[in-house]
Structure formats: structure tokens, C-alpha cells
Amino acid sequence: MGYKPAMEIDLQHKPASQLSARHTLLGKDRLQMTASLREFGLAEKPAKMRSNQIFRWLYHQGINDFSLMTNLAKDLRNDLAEYFDLSRPEIIEKLVSTDGTRKYLIRFAPGVEAESVFIPGVGRSGALCVSSQVGCTLNCTFCHTGSQALVRNLTAAEIVGQVLLARDDLDEWPTPSAGRRITNIVFMGMGEPLLNLPNVLTAIDILSDNEGISISRRRITVSTSGIVPQMAPLGDQGKTMLAISLHAVTDALRNELVPINRRYPIAELLQACRQYPGASNARRITFEYVMLKGINDSDAEAKELVRLLAGIPAKINLIPFNPWPGSPYECSSWQRIEAFAEIVNKAGYSSPVRTPRGRDIFAACGQLKSESVKKRASERLREQQQLNP
Ligand code: SF4
Q1: Residues sharing a CB contact under 8 Å with residue 129, sequence separation 6 or more, in sequence order
Q2: Spacing, Cα 292 to ligand 1 middle (Å)
Q3: pLDDT value for 135
Q4: Which tens digit of pLDDT belongs to each residue from 68-86?
Q5: Centre of ligand 1 from the C-alpha of residue 145, in Å
Q6: Which residue has the CA at smallest separation from atom 5 of ligand 1?
């Protein structure tokens, strides 16, 4: 099949004057993008070809302006720009920590804001922690986001948009084949990703596509508080790494710390982990355990943790609690954390203690957003006072 000139193959698209609403192409995988271009009016073959080209512009080059997509005919570019909106969400606040952590507060629409955090790693790796919802319904008592009401699920475009914005900020376009700063994506920001699974799965398809951002599924980790029925679909379709927000070894305590445990208790959760598609010694499940002084940090609890995880290819992340104003817990002492880690290590589990990052920039998830909400509230109050002195 020889190449056909653009004018000929794109002949069927509707002139801009006949197009009214603006649609988005962001957040669509290549198949969905082809379908959108079909709706726009391209025939099947050109739609497929154009979607491959546009996908590369958006996600490999980082371009969000049709006029710069030079392998598309000029009139087609104009009409696409009339029909499709490629605009990204907006970073409304950025904080950079002395340790290099960057925290972004992102506005998707008026009143719809969430956070993402870039965490530079040791050596050449760096992780971007993305949000999947604005707020959260699950009310984990140690989590600052849990104290905020759920606004809504983020769309696939909004999830991918967080990566695009971080790549813009880190000046990481076109997608580098080596020496990247964002090497990993973790769904550990605001919200419970498995309560927004369809959008999370589409976002994963886009982020892992080799023609675009090209982050391997093995470098994408989805963290759940334990929405058991959605774990197998995540493994089957998303093929990502899995992390579990465990934090307690008895149902009584976990019911309190992670209330969804009342619905999906520890035994059921661990059974779903044993059956997680693709879990193996090379692809271990991460168990997150936040260290809360006098609550879950005894030697007996460390031993019980080891017993519970027997037979699961696991690693354990001990997370020093990062208090926020008004939080009901304190962080365990370093001595206690070390003693806990030693028991877990001796049992053969790798259990790195996650170094607290970005403490100087409100690094606990949800803090920046709540500062922004407070600020808006105080601005409103000031405005009211100015109007009614
Ligand atoms: S830890 Fe996760 S699931 Fe629990 S309240 Fe916070 S954001 Fe929601």
C-alpha cells in the first residue's frame, strides 16, 4: 500500500463550519482516538493513521497544539483544532522541597483540584504519585485526604494530564529513551483507584503505550486500601504492580484505621493477593504499613504481620507517619521502627523504611489541597468583609 497524500485520504472530514461542540482527544487510547476521529468524519483507514500520528504528538513529543503537528495537512489541522480540545489541566500551585520533591496542586475544573507529587529517587529513578479521585469516600483515619469529601472520580484524561504536566515541569519531552526523571508511576495520591477502575485502566493503557509516554506496566503500581472484587480485574487488564494499604494485622484495628476492612476483612484481602494475576517472586506485592506510635508498632504485631503474609510474594514498606495539623496519631520512634523492621527483615522480607520526603512542603497526601481550600475560604471571608465592612 503506497502513501496517499493527506488531502486525498482526509477528504471525508467535515469542514470546521459544520462542527459545533469541542471534544477532547486526551485520555483516549489509540483505539478510542481512532473512534473519535471517525466521529469527526475521517474514513476508517485515515482515522487509524491520523490517530497514530496524533498520539505520538501528544504523548511522545508532548505537543498539545494541532498547528505544530506538521505531518498533518494544514486544513485538517485547522479543523481538528476547531473540533477537539487538547488543553491540559492547570498547575495552580507548585512547591519544591529541599530534597527535590515537587508537589503540584492541579485544577481540572473550578473547584475540582487534586495533588500529584514527583519524588526523585536514589540514582536514576523517580516516581510520580498521581491522584485518581478528588477527595475520597473511605475515611482512613490516618489519611488526610480521607478527611475531605469526595468531589468526583478523575477522568482518564485528568489522570494522564497529571503526568503530562509533571513532564512539562521537568522538561522531559520528547519522551527520552534513557536518563528519564519520571521512571515510575504510583497511584498513591488522593482517592481509591479501584473505585475508579475503568478510568484508571484507560490511563494505564495510555501511559504504558510504547508510542507515547512509554512507562512499562511493571513500573506502574496501583495502591488499594483493599477493594477485593476489583483486584483481579486490575491484574488481568492493567497488568500493573499491586500495593496494599494494610497498616494493621487484626480486623479490630484495621476496621478502625481502614474502615473498608469491615466490608473486605484481612483474610479475604490476603486471599485476593494470593490470587493476584501475575504476582511472583519477581513481581512482589507491596504491603504498606504506616508506623503509628503505640497503635500498630509492637514486636507482636511485626511477628503477626510476618505470619499473615506467609506464602505471598511480598515486600513490606514501613512508612513513618507524617502528621498533619489535627491528626489523631503520632509517628513511632525511630528505635521502634527499627525494631519492627528487624523482625520483618529477619523473616526474609525486604522491608525498606520509606524516608519521609518533602516534609517541608506539606508532603502528606491531601495537605496542599486542604491548604488551598482554607486559603480560598479565607479569601472569600476577606472579600465578604470588604463588601460589608
Ligand atoms: S488512604 Fe487512600 S483510600 Fe484511605 S482515605 Fe486516604 S486516599 Fe482514601
Answers
A1: 116, 117, 118, 119, 186, 187, 188, 189, 365
A2: 16
A3: 87
A4: 999 999 999 999 999 999 9
A5: 6
A6: 146
In this predicted structure, what is the pLDDT of residue 241? 97
Q: Is 338 left (phi over 0), alpha (psi -120 to 50) or beta?
A: alpha
Ligand 1 pocket at CB < 6 A: 136, 138-140, 143, 145-146, 190-192, 225, 245
Q: How many residues does the chain have?
A: 389
What integer pLDDT is reported at residue 382 of this predicted model? 54
Residue in 255, 229, 126, 143 with CA at minimum distance from that of residue 191 = 143
- What are the residue numbers of the active site? 115, 365
Residue 99, pLDDT score: 86
**Local confidence band at 375 (pLDDT 50, 70, 90 cut-offs):** low
7 pLDDT above the threshold of 50: no
Ligand 1: which of 133, 145, 154 to mutate, most ligand atoms within 8 Å of CB? Answer: 145
Residue 299 cell numbers, joined: 514486636
pLDDT score recorded for residue 362: 54
Give mean pLDDT, residues 219-223.
96
Same fold, 6-85 and 90-365: no
Q: Locate the domains of the chain by residue range.
A: 6-85, 90-365
Domain 6-85 class, CATH top level = mainly alpha
Q: What is the Å distance from ligand 1's center to 227 Cα?
A: 12
Indicate which atom in ligand 1 lies nearest the CA of residue 143.
Answer: 6
> For domain 90-365, is the CATH number 3.20.20.70?
yes
Residue 219 to residue 237: CA distance in whole angstroms: 15
